[in-house]
Automatic annotation (TrEMBL):
UniProt cross-references to Gene3D superfamilies, sorted A to Z: 2.60.40.1190
Source organism superkingdom: Eukaryota
Full protein name: Carbohydrate-binding domain-containing protein
Signal sequence annotation: 1-19
Keywords: Signal
Source organism per UniProt: Coemansia thaxteri
């Protein structure tokens, strides 16, 4: 109760100090904040529930992704770290430290086979304008760099959960209390009978069948 009250008070203090209400106030671990979404982008049609629990330590961002209502657990077993896992089923976080609409941000993905995709995205148009530059710089040795991941499938309950650790040094953001971030969270859904078509589900609706729209990113305050 005490932790919750403190978090709410800090969140409120930030909102009144800046007149920008964050979408989410992210606490120090083991407290958590949860981003939850249940709709497709851009249509707003229903999507099975996805949650992302977030918290920070002095050196890492911790994310727990939970996909409910999962029926296919669909991935390509041949794909390994930094493969095109986004063609199948993944949960994703786009992450930027700062308050503006980013042109470069980190794209993190995990699939039901515990495989991750780790890349900085270069998107200078901010909306992946056709013909504009759009590039990726991969983190080639995430586990050597301090990333961690653990993915658990719960088929009887149509659910999969992935717990991830992302080093804050990646963002020059150690001891992040008081910092502002922009992020969006996504989930893709497909299966053997629908591949390569996907349902695209998202926290903040980008208004397009694309995830790479940075003005849509939510605002998160680390408190
Ligand atoms: C997921 O992958 C990570 C990194 O290779 C490994 O440490 C972890 O044990 C794996 N978890 C599962 C459930 O396979």
């Amino acid at each position: 109760m005490r932790t919750f009250f403190t978090l709410a008070a800090l969140c409120l203090a930030f909102a009144s100090a800046t007149s920008t209400k964050p979408d989410l106030c992210v606490p120090r671990c083991p407290a958590i904040a949860t981003a939850k979404f249940t709709t497709q982008i851009p249509s707003g049609s229903p999507c099975p529930q996805t949650t992302v629990d977030l918290c920070y330590t002095n050196t890492a961002l911790k994310l727990v992704f939970t996909a409910s209502g999962e029926t296919n657990f669909y991935f390509d077993p041949a794909q390994t770290t930094n493969g095109d896992i986004w063609e199948y089923e993944v949960m994703e976080a786009f992450i930027y430290k700062g308050s503006n609409d980013p042109q470069t941000y980190f794209e993190y993905e995990v699939n039901p086979n515990n495989v991750t995709y780790n890349a900085f995205v270069y998107n200078p148009s901010r909306v992946r304008t056709a013909g504009a530059p759009f590039d990726h710089a991969f983190i080639s040795d995430p586990f050597g760099d301090g990333f961690a991941v653990n993915t658990v499938l719960n088929k009887p309950n149509s659910k999969w959960t992935s717990t991830s650790t992302i080093p804050l040094a990646l963002f020059n953001a150690e001891n992040p209390r008081g910092t502002t971030w922009r992020m969006n969270f996504f989930r893709t859904i497909t299966g053997p009978s629908t591949f390569p078509n996907q349902q695209l589900c998202g926290w903040k609706n980008t208004g397009l069948a694309s995830f790479h729209i940075t003005p849509a990113f939510g605002t998160l305050q680390f408190v």
